[in-house]
Amino acid sequence: MSCGRPVLLVDSMGILYRGHFAMSRRPLTSPDGVVTSGLNHLLTELLRLMEKYDPAYCAAVFDGETPGFRKELYPEYKANRPPMPRELAVQADLARQIIPGLGIPLMQYDGLEADDIIAGLAGEARSLGMSVVVLSSDKDLLQLVSDTVSVFRPGRPGSPGRLVTPAEVPEEIGTTADRVPLLLALAGDSSDNVPGARGIGEKTALRLLKDHSTLEDLYASLESLPPRVAGKLEESREMVELSLRLVTLNQPLPPELKLRDAVRGEPRGDAL
pTM of this prediction? Predict the structure, then answer.
């Protein structure tokens, strides 16, 4: 299954959301009045990367329909998010119709988020000696960046994006790819309602990560930290450990989800 062209994996809803809300004040609409800002952004970025990389394997990945293990671990996970606007739900449905017409498989699985599926497929591709490009603006996915996995982060609609390789990860988020989960576990993630350590912000978390690469190492070194910081970490240890489980992308994929199911097909003009 080895292939010189990279595998392209798309965080579909993430790009739809970004495009929709970036243009919410002046949305794009179809002739019959359907809002298409998110759909336009997704298809523009997808087709741009398809042309650039000509991938033999490509998948547009969506969240499963049912909650996954994170909601079981922490019922407040993503509880701060408002319901999806109807205009965006319509665009998601349209994307699910249009993208297969482009010859690109859709992938989703109940109980798994798109990030988990992308991480699993990227891991399989890497084990097969294949490189991967992930299309996403989600900072969680920066933890996947490696010598064979890059993340293309699109700009705002109409603006150029940026390919993030290991050297660029610190410029994007302040630390290396392997420490991204620990950063999110300490500082929390308001977009997903991940709690983190009470009173520890991103700046403090980044300072801690300069000398500590694992949670175990950090908590073994509390005596060397300023008492105020050490106290906050100790008080929040249970939540930090929980947060780390929430943000880490290492869930094994079910046997039904394999890279072989991401083989790119021919566009179908009739469907489009």
Answer: 0.94
